[in-house]
Each structure stands twice: as structure tokens, then as C-alpha cells.
Write a structure and sequence with these properties.
Strand content: 5-15%
Order of helices and strands: HHEHEHEHHHHHEHE
Number of strands: 5
Length: about 210
């Protein structure tokens, strides 16, 4: 029952934000301030495209997806095309998380590993050197989390992050839209907790620092 109530509240908040947004644009247009109105419209379009791309990344993991038993799952700071080249397998699924922390990439793996084949599958977590020891989650990681995880991590602002990524993480949002980050060099790292998690579930895990 509480879940239904929360959904209703979320829809009301989203509707209120939309009305407020339209009112602001209307005020600018009526006042003859077309440049601010155009900027707001451009930001709105960029935000909508970002959200759609976020949702497309989740498609392979949906209930009705036919993508299963993948050879490799690449998660992290690497574009889908580069991830395909890195894995060297045609059956690779990638999740692009620009600027992600290792904690963020690992949490996404915990929610998506079932797409891998049980025997011989491989997971790669790709993280920039400066973000290896950092914590924190961007909208792109949070979009994969279940409600229980969001509560556990106390991500009370997750609703706004997911609806307005272009405002809260503009650079990362533009990187998502561009989707061009490659890998020039990578160093393999080891993490006992992540290695144990992968071994217990029948696949290998690798951390790449780029």
C-alpha cells in the first residue's frame, strides 16, 4: 500500500514540476525574453534525451528482454562501442556510467549480473583512477537500483536526480548523450569483496582502472 502511495506522490511532484516549468517559459515568452526561454527549452530537450538514453540502457535487463546468457557485462566509464572492443565478444552488454565510482559500478553489477551466463561469464568494471576510492552515486547508477537499495543507501533525492539529470549532473549527462569515451590504457585491480561476489555466482570479475 505504501508503494502505491509513494508512486502517487511521485506523479504529483512530477506534474507540479512540469506545470512550474511551463509557467516559467510562458512568463519569459510573454515578457519578450526569448533567449532565456530558448535556453530553458534546450535544457529541457537535453534532459529528455538523457532520460531516454538512461532508460534504453536498462532495456536488456527488463522482464521481457530476450537478451540472456551474455558472455561479458561491461559496467562503467566507457562508451558502448569501446566496451564491445574491450571485451572482444559479440555477446557483450554494456552500461555506460560516465564518472562513476567503483562503489557505484559495483552496486549496478549487484543488480544486473543475472544477464551473464552461469558458467564462464565475465564482468568488467571500468573506473577512472581518480574515482576508484570515491563513493557516491549519479542518476545513471541510481536508475538501476531497486527501491530497497535506494532506501538502504539513503538516497532520498533520487527521484529528482532521475527526473532532472541534466541539472544535477550536466557534464555527465552530455557525456551520456555523446557516448564517445574510449580506453587508451587500463590497469587491472583486485578487490576481495567484488571478487568473492563474482566467484560465488559463477562468473569472473575484473576491475579496470583507466
Amino acid at each position: 500500500m505504501s508503494g502505491i502511495i509513494n508512486k502517487v506522490k511521485n506523479h504529483k511532484k512530477a506534474a507540479a514540476l512540469l506545470v512550474l516549468f511551463l509557467m516559467i517559459i510562458a512568463v519569459f515568452v510573454i515578457s519578450g525574453m526569448y533567449l532565456p526561454a530558448a535556453v530553458i527549452m534546450a535544457v529541457s530537450v537535453a534532459n529528455e534525451l538523457t532520460v531516454r538514453k538512461m532508460n534504453r540502457q536498462k532495456a536488456p535487463f527488463g522482464t521481457y528482454s530476450k537478451i540472456r546468457n551474455a558472455d561479458c557485462l561491461v559496467i562503467g566509464d566507457i562508451s558502448p562501442k569501446a566496451a564491445q572492443n574491450l571485451s572482444g565478444s559479440d555477446k557483450t552488454v554494456s552500461i555506460y556510467l560516465p564518472g562513476c565510482t567503483l562503489a557505484g559500478a559495483y552496486e549496478v553489477l549487484r543488480h544486473t549480473f543475472s544477464i551473464l551466463k552461469e558458467d564462464g561469464g565475465q564482468a568488467m568494471l571500468v573506473v577512472r583512477k581518480k574515482n576508484i576510492d570515491k563513493t557516491g552515486y549519479s542518476p545513471f547508477e541510481i536508475s538501476f537500483f531497486h527501491a530497497v537499495t535506494i532506501n538502504r543507501l539513503e538516497l532520498d533525492n533520487s527521484e529528482y536526480l532521475l527526473r532532472l539529470p541534466i541539472l544535477f549532473t550536466p557534464i555527465k549527462s552530455l557525456m551520456i548523450l555523446a557516448g564517445t569515451r574510449g580506453v587508451k590504457s587500463a590497469t587491472g585491480l583486485c578487490d576481495k569483496e567484488i571478487s568473492a561476489f563474482c566467484e560465488e555466482r559463477g562468473f569472473t570479475g575484473e576491475i579496470l582502472e583507466v
